[in-house]
Amino acid sequence: TANAGPKITFSQCHVDGPYIAMTFDDGPHGANTPRLLDMLKQRNIKATFFMCGECVVQFPQLVKRMVEEGHEVANHSWSHPQLNKMGEESVTDQLQRTHDAIKQACGVEPKLMRPPYGAFTVNQRSWANHKWGYRIILWDVDPLDWKVRNSEHVEHEILTHTVAGSIVLSQIGR
Prior knowledge:
Elements: E1 9-10, E2 21-25, H1 32-42, E3 48-51, H2 53-56, H3 60-68, E4 72-75, H4 88-106, E5 112-113, H5 122-132, E6 135-137, H6 151-161, E7 167-171
Parallel strand pairs: 1-6, 2-3, 2-7, 3-4, 5-6
Helix pairs in contact: 3-4
């Protein structure tokens, strides 16, 4: 069989032990992100933040703080559109502007990308990997915290569905 090339899309990660990946989408947010960063710091937890470029330019100091505290910063598009319904030029603009904003805010070039709604075609994944070297990160646990605004429900969903190597999707707000 022909080799399809390196794997570029991930819904889980390989881990040796009881570890998961906590990920947060849509920020940074002026009020929620500092509170979240404080909680993560108190618990010595590192996370990945998939950020919208239009929020990055509003709160560059929060992006810098994320990196200083050991978190990973990643691309989540400029304005959170459904990328799989857009042409290559528009998608390129969404991702490049965000890539540049993240780099300007903290000096780090993102290596990961999560498409809003998980909507990204196979061809889009391939050229985003080729153009920016992005690994496309999806998830296997979605507690629907954006929909069900109840912390007990969110906790239950995460604890019930998470296994070693899970990638947990959470919303930070915009």
